[in-house]
Amino acid sequence: MEKIKLKVRDLEMEYDGKRALDKVSFNVQDGEFLSILGPSGCGKTTILRILIGLLKPTGGTVTKDGIDITDISPAGRGMGIVFQNYALFENMTVLENVEYALKIRKENKANEARQAVREKALALIQQMDLTEHIDKKPAMLSGGQQQRVAIARTLIMNPDIIMFDEPMSALDVATRLSLRKEIKRIQAEFKTTMIYITHDQEEAFAMSDRIMVMKEAHLVQIDTPQNIISNPANDYVKDFVLSNLQAKIDSLLKYVKV
After folding, report:
1. Strand ranges of the sheet holding 79-82, from the earlier edge strand across to the other edge
2. Which CATH architecture does the domain made up of 1-74+172-258 adopt?
3. CA 153 – CA 97 distance, rounded (Å)
4. Where does the ABC transporter domain start and stop, copy by copy (predicted)?
5. Is 111 in contact with 71 (CB distance < 8 Å)?
C-alpha cells in the first residue's frame, strides 16, 4: 500500500480580495514525482509557497507524514526548494554555495563536523558533474551548471521532499533535456518525493508519475499522464494540455531532427 507523504485539504488563498486558491485538495505519495501544471496566474506557485512554508494559507491544512505542518516554519518542514533563478550566492564558489546551509549550523562549527560537511559537499558536486567547476563563482557558469549547483545545495540538507519552481524555463532545449534526466536520476537514487511546478505540458508529461492540472485557482484533474491523455476531465484539459502537448512534441521532434 502506498504511503501518503503530503495531504493537502481545502487549501484557500486570497490576495487583496482576489481568490488565488479555491478549496484545493490533493495527496502526494511518498517517492512520487508530481507536476503541478497550469498557465500563469492559476495558483500553482502559490501552492508551492504554502507547502514550503513561505506563505500562510487563508484556509485549509497541510499534513506531512501525518503531522499538521500548516503553521510550522520552513526550516522545520524537511523540504527543499529549487528556484527558477537559481538563487545562488554570487560572491561564493560552487563549493561554498553547496556547503553553506550546513556549514552555518551551530552543531557543525567544530572542526570534525566542518570536515564532514565538506566531504558531503564534495561528493554531491561530483555526483552533479561539477567537480571541474568547484572553485568557480556563479557568473562563470552556464545556466544549466548553476541549476545543478542549486540542486546540490538543496540535496545536502537531506530533504525528503524537493520542490521545483519552473527550474528550466530559462534554459535552452539541449540543457533542459539533460537536466530532466539528471532530476529523474536524483529522484531514483535519493528516493526523494518531488513536486514540480511548470507551465510546460511536454515537460510535465515526460517527467511525472502524476500531473495536477490547474485552472484559475482550481484543481481540474489529477491523474497519471496516460489517464489524462485517454480520459481528459473536460474541454479545458483537452485544449490546454493535449493540444499544447502535441505542439510541444512536434517542436521537440523538429529540434531533434536538426
Report:
1. 79-82, 161-165, 193-198, 33-37, 210-215, 218-223
2. 3-Layer(aba) Sandwich (3.40)
3. 7
4. 6-241
5. no
Cα–Cα distance measured from residue 13 to residue 24, given in angstroms and rounded to the nearest whole number: 10
3-state DSSP: the chain helix, strand, coil percent, rounded to 5? 45, 25, 30
- How far apart CA 26 and CA 8 sit, in angstroms, is 5
Q: At what angle do helices 173-190 and 143-155 cross, to 10 degrees?
A: 10
pLDDT in tens, 82-136: 988 888 999 999 999 999 887 777 666 677 777 888 999 999 999 999 999 999 9
Residue 154's identity, in one-letter code, is: T
Asked if residue 28 lies in contact with residue 194, where contact means CB atoms within 8 angstroms, the answer is no
Greatest CA span in the chain, whole angstroms?
61
Phi, psi angle pair for 170, to nearest 5°: -100, 5
Cα 222 from chain centre:
17
Cα–Cα distance for residue pair 32/2, rounded to 1 Å: 10
Cα separations (Å) of 210 from 21, 26, 155, 196, 223?
Answer: 20, 11, 23, 11, 5
What is d(CA 238, CA 245) in angstroms, rounded to the nearest whole number? 10
> Rounded to whole angstroms, how far apart are CA atoms 133 and 130?
5
Q: How far apart are the first and last CA of the chain?
A: 45
Q: 19 phi and psi, to 5 degrees?
A: -80, 120
Ordered by start, the domain boundaries in the chain are 1-74+172-258, 79-158
Q: What is the pLDDT of residues 130-154, one digit of tens each?
A: 999 999 999 999 999 999 999 999 9
Q: How far apart are CA 206 and CA 37, in angstroms?
A: 12
